[in-house]
Write a structure and sequence with these properties.
- It is globular, with a radius of gyration of 17 Å.
- It starts with 9 loop residues before the first strand and ends in a 13-residue tail after the last strand.
- The protein has a single domain, classed as Alpha-Beta Plaits, CATH 3.30.70.
- Helices cover 30% and strands 31% of the residues.
- The protein contains four helices and four strands, in the order βααββααβ.
- A four-stranded antiparallel sheet has the order 2-3-1-4.
- By secondary structure, it is of the alpha+beta class.
C-alpha cells in the first residue's frame, strides 16, 4: 500500500466473484497497481488498495481501498463519476457478482494513562 506511513481513517471493502478464467485479468485490474488504483492514485486522500483472494474459493476476492477520510472518498466519487462508471462497466465482464461489503471508519484506541501510583 502506498503512503503506508500515513494513517488511514476510511476503508471501503468490496467482494467479487470472478468469472472462471478471468482471475489473472481481474488481479491485474484490481491489484495495487491496476486500473482502479491508477484511477484513484491522483485523488487527494487516497492511500492505496489491497487485493485479497479467498483461500477456499480462489475466484472470490476482496478489495480494500484506504482513504484518509470519508470526505476525500466522496469528493473523489463525485468529481470522477464518469470515469468511475466507465471503468466499472468495463470490469463487469470479469465478474459474476460484485458487492460492496461496507465502508468502515478506523477505530483508534489509546493506551491507558499510567496511574500516579505506578
Amino acid at each position: 500500500m502506498r503512503n503506508r506511513d500515513r494513517q488511514w481513517g476510511y476503508l471501503v471493502v468490496w467482494e467479487f466473484q470472478v468469472q472462471p478464467g478471468k482471475e489473472n485479468e481481474f488481479e491485474k485490474d484490481y491489484g495495487p497497481n491496476g486500473a482502479w488504483a491508477e484511477l484513484f492514485k491522483p485523488a487527494e486522500g487516497y492511500l492505496g488498495t489491497e487485493l485479497n483472494r479467498d483461500l477456499k474459493n480462489p475466484r472470490r476476492y476482496l478489495t480494500l481501498d484506504f482513504w484518509e477520510c470519508r470526505e476525500a472518498y466522496e469528493r473523489f466519487r463525485e468529481e470522477h463519476r464518469a470515469e468511475y462508471k466507465g471503468l466499472d462497466l468495463r470490469s463487469e465482464a470479469m465478474t459474476e457478482t460484485e458487492k460492496e461489503i461496507g465502508a468502515f471508519a478506523r477505530v483508534l484506541t489509546r493506551a491507558p494513562k499510567p496511574s500516579p501510583d505506578s
